[in-house]
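Hi W., the zinc ion complex you wanted:
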Amino acid sequence: MRNGFHIFDAHTHIGAAWHNGRTMSADDLLRNMDEHGIDRSLVIPFPVVEEYRRQHDLIGRAVKQHPDRLTGAACLDPRLPGRQFQDEIRRCREVYGFRAIKLQPQYHGLDPMSDSSHFFFETAVENRLPVIWHTGAGVPFALPSLCMAPARQFPELTLVVAHCGGGVFVQEAVLAALFCPNISLELSSLMPHQVLEVLAKVPPDRLMIGSDLPENTEVEIGKILGLPVPDADKRFILSGTAYRVFGQEP
Ligand SMILES: [Zn+2]
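Structure:
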């Protein structure tokens, strides 16, 4: 809790990142959560890893040890031979109860507009898992407007636009949410004035916070706590929307 609000951080990572050498353990994350009053975190593998099953196992074990604090999400390069991607997503859901799949087009090169990408969204629908979609750095595939194609094609799918377009494409992210009721926005990396611009168009029960990395935690929470908006709006953004989207209870 922070200032009387439950806090659900909808974007964190543990494990080892192969592309930049970063490491983060479950204990590191839990310490950071305690320090900043975070009740629950959605935990995602880093986008480039040495062995995706090992990273999922690491998160799965942490989720099983701390079911009251952590929610698991899968992330792997989806372009694997045969049905390895589908099998791994099902394994993560069945064995560890993961609640989301991350799409990382900055590193995984999946063109969401192409019919050859349908399998990704079909897998999410089959497993009833929301897709968290990295946006911002990594265009063109990381453009928020591209989310609208699968959002329209798979109306039962829930999409979360991570980083809300990464600042530069914030208006595109807002448009995507306005045109598609199954799109929610995760606000990490936006400036507070941009969050207000988003809130002027998109209802707070479609918005959520994320820290991405522990150095950002205080700023990402503080920028919402400091907004001149009703507490009811902050309640949705700080935890309510994420509890609903990822099917968890406060
Ligand atoms: Zn991230």
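Residues 11, 13, 212 surround zinc ion (CB under 6 Å).

W.
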